[in-house]
Design a protein that fits this description.
single chain, about 180 residues, mainly beta, about 0% helix, flat
Length: about 180
């Protein structure tokens, strides 16, 4: 695992150094407190982190249920000129679609709502869109695609996912989700 630290400034970003962590040296399924000195040309100081390494062979997860907890969003794109945004999340997996409730007057909504989607294959993906609810037609605030294979889903274990939204080739805002895989019964 390689981490690079940057100092973000107005005019430019400065490389502060990096660290490399050997995953096979970490304790699997346990929280690992790590303190490492920054290395590199400008490496000064230490990095303090808490890393949890969870190995799973996701190929075992085929048919089942994906529990999607839509927790919150932040820094959403404002699509309204004269009114406030009223966002909701739309999720689609194949022919299944689900929506959260509408949160009025905010660009940083909190939902804490759970939806369920049936999956048949590890290569399934979930389409995620955030819309601004309007009287005439809802405006797209951003979208993303989640490939289930990209997430280490372990049965009955919630995985935190931060989804960067894009619209018209611009990144703006993110949605915080928790995904949990449940095998078919």
């Amino acid at each position: 695992l390689n981490l690079q630290c940057w100092d973000s400034d107005v005019l430019h970003n400065e490389d502060m150094g990096g660290v490399s962590i050997e995953i096979d040296q970490m304790r699997s399924w346990q929280s690992n407190d790590i303190i490492m000195p920054l290395e590199g040309k400008h490496g000064k100081g230490d990095v303090f982190m808490k890393v949890t390494y969870q190995y799973s062979d996701f190929t075992e997860c085929a048919q089942g249920l994906i529990q999607v907890k839509v927790i919150s969003a932040a820094n959403l794109r404002d699509t309204d000129t004269f009114t406030t945004a009223d966002p909701y999340v739309y999720l689609k997996l194949k022919q299944q679609d689900r929506k959260t409730s509408v949160k009025n007057g905010t660009l940083s909504p909190v939902w804490n709502e759970t939806v369920y989607l049936h999956t048949e294959d590890v290569s399934d993906f979930i389409e995620l869109k955030v819309f601004d609810k309007d009287v005439m037609s809802d405006d797209l605030m951003g979208s993303a695609v989640l490939n289930l294979r990209d997430h280490c889903l372990i049965e009955d274990t919630a995985v935190d996912v931060y989804v960067q939204l894009e619209t018209k080739h611009l990144s703006k805002g993110f949605v915080y989700l928790q995904l949990t895989y449940k095998s078919s019964i």
